[in-house]
Every structure is written in structure tokens, then in C-alpha cells.
Amino acid sequence: MITKSRTVPIELLHLRSIRARQKVSEKIENQVHTLEKGFSEETWFDQRLESLSLDCLILNDLLLETNNTHYQIDSLLISRRKIHLFEVKNYEGDYVVNEDRWQSLSSGIEMKNPLLQLTRSESLFRQLLQQLGSDFTVESHLVFINPEFYLYQVPPNLPIIFPFQLTRFMNNLSSQSSSLVEKHHTLAKKLLSLHIKKSPFSLLPQYSFGEMEKGILCIVCWNEFLKYGNQHKLTCPNCGSWEAKESAVTRSIEEFEHLFPELKITVSTIFEWCKVIKSKKTIRKILSKNYNLIQSGRSSYYERSK
Ligand SMILES: [Zn+2]
SS3 of 94, please? Predict the structure, then answer.
């Protein structure tokens, strides 16, 4: 049972719109690429976990803080006896392990040892459980999902799951008898309440309303602004996808809210932001559906309905 699904990271949402609306550095382009890749890999692993026939709770993409230290858990699975913690990697190529050092076999270049990151997260998570008065056993796994990855000289005691072992691992988990009771659900709820939504790690480039190109971005390719296809639908000149006008405007307002939490939502601002929509009346109609109008002297603005 999925208790917390993975959603597109806020950092990626922000970067998608910023890079489509203004020029960004190559570093940012790479950052977007890495985030997109990471997100699709993790989603792939989520689907594998979802297919388990085990009474369990799954919390994906948790950002927690213990003793003033932030750490991320790719996937967490609460079963009757144990909590499984997963760190998912999509490394490619041949590597060799020499004690704590992981090196590329061809170039000899050392990479960051992902086990150190996993050990750190596990230790912080155990401390958190202690603070919550919970006595669950924690087991961590480093999961490699790319079949084009190989690691030489791996001691067998390392908590690693290679691509060819994943099916067996999942079958093993599925075959365990597990029925959850109240304490499992209570813990899952507690962890969810501790999840930090805004990542302290994200670094965004500078942007401003004035400098950004206006229009409604395509939700499929994030590369082009939508144009009118017919009276009720918009279409993307780049990838050819279609979207209902109202859904596209609603989405664009949400994007505006994320990017500019300090700016007021007014009909004029959203009209300018969406650009493609021909009448302010349409904008007003869509705003009134999901937002409350706040009258404030001569100027009025909208606030999201609670
Ligand atoms: Zn498109």
C-alpha cells in the first residue's frame, strides 16, 4: 500500500519553468537533466515495490531531519517486523571496490561511495525512531537498477541489490507473512508529518516576473508555449499534445504561485502570465472557481480556497 507517492520534486518543477522562460547556464541545464533522470528511475523502482503482494506501507521520497541534519530516503517500506530503507542508483559502467573507495575501472576516477550515504541515513533514521519511542528493526539496501552496471571485488556482506537480484529480492519480500497493526500505521503517519516539503538543498537561479517569458508551458515537453488549437483546447507546436484551456490555465496559475509566492494573484497578473488567453473574462471565471476573491480597497486579489 502506497502511503506517500513520489511527486515531481519541487526543485525540478521550478527549474522546468525557469529554463523554459529565460536563458539559464549550462550548469542548470545539466542539473535539470540529472533531476529528470533521477525522477524517472526512482519512479521505475516505485512501480516494482508497488507490485509486492505484501501487507506493508510504502513511503517514497522522504526528506527528514534528525539532530539538525537533513537526509533523504528514496523509499521506505514498513512491514510487520522490519523497516526497509532503499537508496536507488542508476550507475552505469564498470567499477571496482577497494575497501571504502569506489573507482571507475577504465579511468580510475574515484566516485562518491554511495554506501557511506546510506549508512549515514540509516543511522539518522534509527536515532529518529529512538526519539519516537519506536523499536522497529531497520534494514538498508543499496539498489542498482541499471543492467549496464557492474561492480568488481564486492564483499558479499554489503547490503547491495544488483539488477539481476532484484526480482529474487522482491519475491522473497512478497513471500513473508506480514499483517500490519495500529503501531505500523501510527508510525507511517508520524513520519509523513515529519516530512519536509521544501528541500534545503535546492539551489535555484535568479529569476523575476518581469524578465520571464510569458505563456502557458506545455506539460508534456516543457519546451514550448501552448497556442490555440480550437476554442476550448490549446496545443503545443513542438510536440503536438493538446490540453483543455481551463486545465492549462489552472496549471499555469499553480506554476505562478510556486514561482512567486510573494506576488498577489490578480486577474491582470494572470492574464499577463498566461499571455495566450484572449480575454480577461476567461481568467476571472477560472480564478473564481478555485480561489476566493479578497476585496482590498481599490485593488482586489485572489487567494486559494482552503
Ligand atoms: Zn509540447
Answer: strand
